[in-house]
Design a protein that fits this description.
The protein has 299 residues and is mainly beta. A hairpin with a 4-residue loop joins strand 25 (280-284) and strand 26. The protein contains 5 helices and 26 strands. The strands form 3 sheets. Strands 2, 3, 4, 5, 6, 7, 8, 9, 10, 11 and 23 form an 11-stranded mixed β-sheet that branches. The relative contact order is 0.21. Mean pLDDT is 85; it is low at 1-17 and 254-260. The chain folds into 2 domains: 2-142, Cathepsin D, subunit A, domain 1 (Beta Barrel); 149-293, Acid Proteases (Cathepsin D, subunit A, domain 1, Beta Barrel), CATH 2.40.70. The radius of gyration is 19 Å and the shape is globular. Pfam families: Asp_protease_2 (PF13650).
């Protein structure tokens, strides 16, 4: 891809090293991207989640290491299935990409395995342009003044009004819709039940599974879409989930602060790993720009 070649070439210039980080290999945990970090000088991992409005700390990590942080109030966090009241911690020491810092106002979440110490949401992604090479399992950071992604944008993408969540226009079968771009979603697509009905999928005996959100789980039905268009690319046999009858699932906005009353465009679902795994995605979550490309061979 022309864009990927351009960005790779910029690394040759000595002036670019301060503006572009080296490639960092990451690991997958069932489709979740995790990178090595230190939290309170403890080697651990951070989960990268563009669908999360805020950074967060794993309550299981805190409990395992018996850590004592300054607790300053609570916040209501809206997950896919319920709203939960979470503690807020201050001045949590974190090191990543050679950066030593203290993170403020970190809500606690249940991130399952205690080795995953923190979740990096929009608070992390807005600091830099982020390039994620899914097939080669690596990523790097670029400063905003180093590359204007808007010049290379090849997909409808913006920040949801009020919530500032990254949303992308995806065509599922013959319907175009806005969806939350969520690196923290390990499936392919999660859509509203009304959309599944419009495709006639409710008339079928679909396999059922349980989908785990930030705070709880719910029963889902599963199908495979014949065609999904993501930017200039077309995919087939993409996994699609939707709420089973009676399930209470909010697929339009994960991790939304419940005090916000601002409404943006209608978001019909979530797109995640099963779509992203084919691509190199270069995103600017500060200004709302995205380029989707295919990977070159690993440098």
């Amino acid at each position: 891809m022309k864009f990927i070649t351009l960005v790779a070439g910029l690394l040759i210039s000595p002036l670019s090293y301060a503006a572009v980080s080296p490639w960092l290999d990451f690991t997958y945990q069932n489709g979740l991207i995790t990178i090595p970090v230190k939290v309170s000088n403890i080697d651990s991992y951070a989960v990268l989640d563009t669908g999360a409005n805020t950074n967060a700390i794993n309550e299981n990590f805190v409990a395992k290491h018996n850590l004592k942080y300054n607790h300053t109030g609570n916040i209501e966090i809206e997950g896919a299935f319920e709203t939960k009241r979470n503690k807020i911690y201050q001045k949590v020491p974190v090191s990543f990409f050679g950066i030593d810092t203290h993170l403020e106002r970190l809500p606690s979440l249940d991130l399952s395995m205690p080795n995953n110490a923190v979740l990096f949401g929009q608070g992390f992604f807005k600091l830099f342009n982020t390039q994620i090479d899914y097939p080669n399992k690596r990523m790097r950071l670029l400063t905003h003044d180093h590359l204007n992604i808007k010049e290379y944008e090849n997909i409808d993408f913006k920040l949801q009004k009020g919530f500032e969540q990254p949303i992308v226009k995806v065509t599922l079968e013959d319907k175009s819709m806005w969806m939350l771009l969520d690196t923290g979603f390990t499936g392919g697509m999660l859509i509203e039940r009304r959309i599944a009905k419009s495709f006639g999928w409710l008339k079928k005996q679909n396999p059922k599974t349980y989908f785990a959100g930030a705070n709880t789980t719910e029963k889902m039905e599963n199908v495979k879409a014949q065609e999904v268009k993501f930017g200039p690319f077309t995919l087939s046999n993409v996994h699609v989930a939707f709420p089973a009858e009676g399930s209470k699932v909010n697929v339009s906005s994960q991790y939304r602060h419940t005090s916000s009353k601002i409404r943006g465009v209608r978001v019909s679902g979530i797109v995640g790993y099963d779509v992203f795994k084919h691509f190199v995605m270069t995103m600017d979550l500060k200004n709302g720009n995205l380029h989707v490309g295919v990977p070159e061979k690993k440098l």
